[in-house]
Amino acid sequence: MPRRGLRITKVYTKTGDKGKTRLAGGQSVWKDHIRVEAYGTVDELNAAIGVVRAFDAQNRDLGRAAEGRLDDEWRWVQNKLFDIGGLLATKPGQSFPNMPRVAANDVARLEQSIDACQRELAPLKEFILPGGGLVGSLLHQARTICRRAERRCVTLARQERVDKQILIYLNRLSDALFIWARWTAHHRGEKECLWQRLDSR
Q1: What is the pLDDT of residues 128-175, one digit of tens each?
Q2: DSSP labels for 165-194?
Q3: Cα 135 vs. chain centroid, distance in angstroms?
Q4: Cβ distance 84 to 156 under 8 Å?
Q5: Which three-class secondary structure state does DSSP give residue 30?
Q6: Cβ contacts of residue 89 below 8 Å, gap of 6+?
Q7: Taken in order 12, 14, 16, 21, is the CA torsion positive or negative?
Q8: How far apart are CA 130 and CA 118, in angstroms?
Q9: Residue 33 has what DSSP assignment?
Q10: Distance, CA of 114 to CA of 177 (rounded, Å)
Q11: Interhelix angle for 164-188 vs 104-118, to 10°?
């Protein structure tokens, strides 16, 4: 698990060439181990949110106060996901100095952001198709990766101990990503497409 003061001097080590990797405590596991799959999917989610932030910054209209309002939240989420990845890469029962944690107040922060954004949105009467402009679409994509990360962590939790706050956080984050996608589309004036039941006849 990366710790403060760590300096990476070499990117490749060749230790993973035979299909195995090492957890934070040094244990060797196969790269398709469910624990590796769990923290790997969290890493994928983190990268997806990084893409969201990059496109949001590139396309931001600086004349609108609402634009960029969520970037602080997204940056915080990226840091928290990095912490979660480190926790998932650590075998149960092991601990390290300055080990990060996921707490109830982290979940509360997501809920507060959801509530604040939702107050500015009209009630949703129909399902919507993922979309709503480029940034909104990327947020929906991140939401689906978040759901997969949650599923991988649930699978892991059925085999080994996983901090329940991680599962709660990922569950609430997927809700936040959905609302952030809608909020972004709303403030950019980009139309959301409603799901329509198609006649298959």
Answers
A1: 888 878 999 999 999 999 999 999 999 999 999 999 999 999 999 999
A2: HHHHHHHHHHHHHHHHHHHHHHHHTPPPPB
A3: 15
A4: no
A5: strand
A6: 1, 23, 24, 35, 36, 39
A7: negative
A8: 17
A9: S
A10: 9
A11: 20
Both tokens of residue 158? 């059925």
**Residue length of the chain:** 201
Using the CB atoms, write b or e for 125-157: b if 16+ within 10 Å: eeebebebbbbbbbbbbbbebbbbbbebbeebb
Q: Residue 190 gets which letter from DSSP?
A: P
Q: Which residue has the tokens 């809920």?
A: 111
Instruction: Dig out the tokens for 166 from the structure.
Output: 């991680």
pLDDT tens column, 100-136 = 999 999 999 999 999 999 999 888 877 888 887 899 9
Predicted TM-score of the model (pTM): 0.86
Q: Which two three-digit tokens encode residue 58?
A: 């590139």
If you count DSSP H runs as helices and E runs as strands, how many of each does the chain have, helices first?
Answer: 5, 2
